[in-house]
């Protein structure tokens, strides 16, 4: 008499398949284009002699690089308004900021905590003019800044 082989563990296989499907759904959602067509790409600007590069992705995330430092943030366009940064409830802001600072120390990548709204003055194919809030314009240079599309 021979022993019958044990039945394959179907539950484990089902959980594995379910996990892979959920991962595929999440990755698909994360990289799904968010219809920010005119802004998607790499833009360059110079303010007070300091150059910066902004890269806007179709999934709603962006990165700004200034003097070797990089800042990551989500962005959203509504009409002529560009909203950037992570919206955090005031009660959680200190904890989130501490975590972001620790993350920056480990990875070298900083996240913009808090929301900023920037007005578009003109949106062209290769040039975008933005108007910054008066409080930032007084500290950082001109009120209207021109972004030029980079070929990279």
Brief overview:
This protein has 152 residues and is of the alpha+beta class. The protein has helices at residues 10-30, 93-107, 134-140, and strands spanning 41-47, 50-56, 61-66, 69-78, 81-84, 109-111, 116-123, 127-131, 144-149.
Instruction: Quote the beta fraction.
Output: 35-45%
Mean pLDDT: 81
Q: Helix and strand succession?
A: HEEEEEHEEEHE
- Class by alpha and beta content: alpha+beta
Would you state the CATH class? Mainly Beta
Biggest β-sheet: count, sense, barrel?
8 strands, antiparallel, barrel
Strand order of the largest sheet: 1-2-3-4-5-7-8-9
Count helical runs. 3
CATH architecture: Beta Barrel
* Residue share in helix: 25-40%
Unreliable stretches (pLDDT < 50, length at least 5) are: none
**Strand segment tally:** 9
> CATH fold name, please?
Lipocalin
The geometry reads as elongated
**Number of domain modules:** 1
**C-alpha-based Rg, rounded:** 22 Å
Distance between the termini: 72 Å
Describe the structure.
The chain is of the alpha+beta class. The chain has one domain (37-149): Lipocalin (Beta Barrel), CATH 2.40.128.370. Helices cover 28% and strands 37% of the residues. The protein is built from 3 helices and 9 strands. It has helices at residues 10-30, 93-107, 134-140; strands at 41-47, 50-56, 61-66, 69-78, 81-84, 109-111, 116-123, 127-131, 144-149. Strands 1-2-3-4-5-7-8-9 form an 8-stranded antiparallel beta barrel. The longest helix has 21 residues, at 10-30. The radius of gyration is 22 Å and the shape is elongated. The model has no long low-confidence stretch (mean pLDDT 81).
